[in-house]
Write a structure and sequence with these properties.
134 residues, pP_pnuc_1, mainly alpha, 6 helices
Length: 134
């Protein structure tokens, strides 16, 4: 973001945020190996369990993966982690996915704001993940 020599710096920043969010959700919070036998994902993995589909072709929505992760918490402070919060994370991800053209149509201030909001969200999910691991 601070480079004055990189005309594509905003897009690079957003791609980095998207990559971190993808890794966190898909590899840490709800990896395919953990969710493939969970009842919550029975319909998504039906063909896989029947031997009709390879596991890497199974599609699971990020919102459902986040819901899976947050449902592991049974005590108070996550009761307020609502569908709106999950939708917010998915909306951030959607914005971060629409950045493949050189002119992304977002100002530097908007990118800085998105960077802060996404960073806070990533921090929260990592913090909750650490709690859940213990």
């Amino acid at each position: 973001m601070e480079s004055s020599e990189n005309p594509d710096k905003l897009r690079h920043c957003l791609i980095s945020l998207r990559t971190i969010l993808e890794y966190l959700i898909d590899d840490q919070l709800a990896p395919i190996e953990k969710i493939k036998n969970d009842e919550m994902f029975k319909s998504e993995f039906k063909k896989y369990h029947q031997g009709k589909q390879e596991i890497h072709f199974v599609k699971v929505s990020r919102s459902k993966k986040i819901e899976y992760f947050t449902n592991k918490f049974e005590y108070g402070f996550l009761e307020e982690f609502t569908r709106n919060d999950i939708q917010y994370i998915c909306d951030c991800y959607s914005v971060l996915c629409n950045i493949h053209q050189p002119n992304i149509g977002i100002t530097e201030n908007q990118v800085r704001s998105l960077k802060i909001k996404t960073g806070i969200t990533i921090w929260l999910l990592c913090y909750l993940y650490k709690i859940q691991e213990k």
